[in-house]
Specification:
The protein is an alpha/beta fold. It contains five helices and nine strands, in the order E-E-E-E-H-E-H-E-E-E-H-H-E-H. Strands 1, 2, 3, 4, 5, 6, 7, 8 and 9 form a nine-stranded mixed β-sheet that branches. The protein starts with 5 loop residues before the first strand and ends in a 10-residue tail after the last helix.
Length: 268
């Protein structure tokens, strides 16, 4: 199951131009049931990494004061704590560059650095892939990636390859969630970010273009690590972004802190 929400990107009136509205969306995957005991390498749970760290690999940025709002994609039943990624393992990703715009790799690297610094997650580039985006992409793809959670797929795509990018949708993203046997063990283990390369290339060529594209990428990566849209227009996670808000604001940073600092996982 998934749900889609859109954010519009418009030029400020001071620029005196009318431009197309651009939407980016969040794709929230269904919770996957735990199929077998962790470490067996069977079913829908891979073996635990041999070099699993017992402590977080980084430290989230201290959230700033302010009154900006934030929302998270999921919370633990019973406690209301935000669901997040395991901070004791690298968040690895692969890139399908099929429809990447000029400079896309550089802007993606900048956006990832922003999210990595804010969350304390160690985000690792695992190279390129020919894997196409898939709205029902499973988090375990042993034939392609071996006995591990599939790395996050970042796919530069287009509306023909990814029909959800039709019209004004510039991208969509979301994590895959795993449920353990004990309460409070919901956890993100994989996911994907799908970006409309041609549309973002057109955006990059316009006024404040590179900043606008980078903002879209940071926004989508925010969804990947667990943030939802908010109704606060001063935040980057607001559904209608403009060149006036191209960086993470106070609410965004508090939200990223909320989805960070989760317990280390040793069960799956």
């Amino acid at each position: 199951m998934s749900r889609t929400q859109a954010v519009r990107v418009a030029m400020p009136a001071a620029l005196g131009a009318v431009v197309a509205l651009v939407a980016v969306a969040v794709l929230a995957g269904a919770v996957l049931p735990r199929g077998v005991l962790a470490g067996t390498g069977r079913g829908n749970v891979p073996s635990l990494p041999s070099d699993l760290s017992a402590v977080p690999l980084g430290t989230p940025v201290r959230p700033p004061v302010g009154d900006g709002g934030y929302a998270v994609l999921a919370t633990q039943p019973g406690t209301g704590e935000a669901v997040g990624w395991d901070p004791c393992r690298p968040l690895t990703y692969v890139v399908n560059p099929a429809s990447a715009p000029a400079g896309g790799a550089y802007l993606l690297g900048e956006a990832i650095a922003v999210i990595q610094a804010a969350t304390g997650l160690l985000v690792v580039d695992a190279g390129t892939t020919g894997e196409p985006p898939d709205e029902v992409r499973p988090p375990l793809l042993r034939e392609r990636y071996g006995d591990r959670w599939a790395p996050v797929l970042v796919a530069w795509s287009d509306p023909v390859t990814s029909p959800r990018l039709a019209g004004d949708v510039a991208g969509y993203a979301g994590p895959s969630t795993m449920q353990g046997t004990d309460p409070g063990t919901l956890h993100y283990v994989s996911g994907q970010v799908v970006l409309d390369g041609p549309q973002l290339a057109e955006m990059a060529a316009g006024p404040a273009g590179l900043a606008r594209v980078r903002a879209v990428l940071v926004h989508e990566l925010g969804h990947l690590v667990g943030l939802d849209h908010v109704d606060d227009p001063g935040q980057l996670m607001y559904p209608a972004t403009t060149p006036l808000v191209v960086d993470l604001a106070d609410g965004d940073l508090r939200g990223l802190a909320a989805v960070s600092g989760r317990p280390c996982r040793t069960d799956f």
